[in-house]
Amino acid sequence: MLNLDQYRTLVFDCDGVILNSNHLKIEAYFATAKNFGASDQAAQALVDYHIKLGGISRFVKFEYFLNEILKKPSTQADVDFLLEDFGREVRKRLATCEIAPGLEQLREKTAASNWLVISGGDQEELRAIFAERNLMSLFDGGIFGSPDNKDQIMAREIGHDNIRQRAMFIGDSRYDHESSSRAGLDFVFLYAWTDFPDWQAYCSSHDIKVLPDINTLLTQACN
Are residues 110 and 124 in the same domain? Predict the structure, then answer.
């Protein structure tokens, strides 16, 4: 059982936690690589790297795509093209993807806590999507993303007293766990929508509490 009343702050990842969007991000990376002129093999290599790195910023992934997969210098023009095209591919997919059942009820259950989103996704893109999906009001602590990484964002928001202990991060990737642990937050792994292939072995070896989804977290909190 998980007592959510002990937490002053709840921090959520976006993809695979709030939105059922991990598979859509995979589609968007593949489409962006193809739009750039890459072969299917190179596009799949970018997808594989994206899955391997979990919640790491797209900036890092596109630098790797250009330098290591395509073996070419990462010019600003190429990076800008990839970022803009990927943003377009993501927005059209995330406009209609599933929102985690139980999210609004969990907000009501934890009304006294501060809620934040800290994601590897582009910050302005996230805020636009959350506004479009009528989710902004749930996250009174703000919605944050790249180009700052999760370690940087958590350190900054702890310094601003926006993340107040005791705090918990709700995520679905290895990087979610590693970065939140470095920041001193408790952690729960949600696996129903994760694209982390080795999550079971990783969570077992690190003694991480695992739950399927937000709705199960709500059910546990209500018992």
Answer: yes
Does the global pTM surpass 0.85?
Answer: yes
- Rounded distance between C-alpha atoms, residue 133 and residue 96, angstroms: 8
Q: In a structure prediction context, what are the per-residue pLDDT tens digits for the chain, which is 223 residues long? A: 788 989 999 999 999 999 999 899 899 999 999 999 999 999 999 999 998 886 678 888 999 999 999 999 889 999 999 999 998 998 888 888 999 999 999 999 999 999 999 998 889 989 999 999 999 999 999 999 988 999 999 999 999 999 999 999 999 999 999 999 999 999 999 999 998 989 999 999 999 999 999 999 988 765 4
CATH number at 143 reads 3.40.50.1000
SS3 of 10-70: the string is: EEECCECCCECCHHHHHHHHHHHHHHCCCCHHHHHHHHHHHHHHCCCCHHHHHHHHHHHHC
Which residues constitute the domain of residue 167? 4-19+99-222
Note the helical H segments in the chain. Answer: 22-35, 40-53, 58-64, 76-94, 103-109, 123-132, 150-159, 174-182, 199-205, 214-222
Same-domain status, 116 and 51: no
Does 121 share its domain with 211? yes
Q: Are residues 82 and 170 in the same domain?
A: no
**Unique residue bearing structure tokens 């690190």:** 206
- Cα separation of 74 and 70, whole Å? 10
- At 156 the three-state DSSP class reads helix
- Based on the fold, state whether residues 14 and 27 are members of the same structural domain: no
Distance in angstroms (rounded) separating the CA atoms of residues 197 and 129:
27
